[in-house]
Amino acid sequence: MITIIEALVPICFAIASGYVIKHLANVQTNVWSGIEKITYYVLAPAILIDTITRHSLAELPWTSIIMVTNTTIFACCLLLAAWLLFDKSLSKPTFTSVFQGGIRFNTFIALAITNALFGDEGLVIGALVAVTMIVLINILCVTTFCLLIKSDNSASPSLTSQLTKNPLIIACLIGLLINILNIQPPKAIADSISLLGRAAFPIGLMAVGAGLELRRLFSDWKPSLLASIVQFAFKPMVALFIISYFSLTPITATVIIIFFSVPTAPSSYILSRQLGGDHQSMASIITAQTMLSFITMPISLWIANQFFIFNSNL
């Protein structure tokens, strides 16, 4: 537990720093929007390419990772769909926010925790876990909007556009291609990508903090509560149950639990605005989950450690 807390403290500090800098230094919202885009389109892809190209992938359990992650996500979808049928007071636009809050994940926080606990070995596994879920989650979220909300917004991105232009998916595919073909990039290029990648975590986490809206922390409490129960209780428990049927290494299993224990993605807000969802409740869910996750994540990881028992100091 001490190791978990020690790994989370710098992450909490980076997020808190972003919030404080934005408000005390009066850094405008459009500046942080630019920082988010740089992180999303440049820095995060750089660290994924750098990590994947520098490590062997031959012995990683691809099939098992896909089965565990996708089955867990589908289980969450079924639970949320059942709730929509049961709770008639929940509007369809608000449900789309609950849905995103229950199945999406914050890539920056997940990779930062994975790196803090397991270093490069964990990052390689984390990159593969992320890409197996990003594709499926984008399909499910966009499909949910299409089924529940009729939008006349011609600027709304199509599913194909969402997937083919996702920089994290593109980065993982580039890294995999370089690794599989055993291509050796020139040292100057490899070092440049590595340098950009090292900036991803601090800048990305500060951007997460800057995006928090504490004034909305207790508004829209019902959607926030429902999404958080799925995100922080149901999802990790289902993943633990499914993992028990696969022969995964303790590190791989724990990395999967990390990705199923982090708050939802800030990009959920953007998608909600683009596709006609309840973006105000989405903002509340993002803020509430980000704050709550630093209480729930140590608990989830401690429970996971009791199952996998590979490091008594975790």
Automatic annotation (TrEMBL):
Cellular component terms per the entry's GO annotation: plasma membrane
Record keywords, A-Z: Cell membrane, Membrane, Transmembrane, Transmembrane helix, Transport
Domain of life of the source: Bacteria
A family per Pfam: Mem_trans
Membrane topology, from the record: Multi-pass membrane protein
GO biological process: transmembrane transport
Alphabetized Gene3D superfamilies for the sequence: 1.20.1530.20
Protein name: AEC family transporter
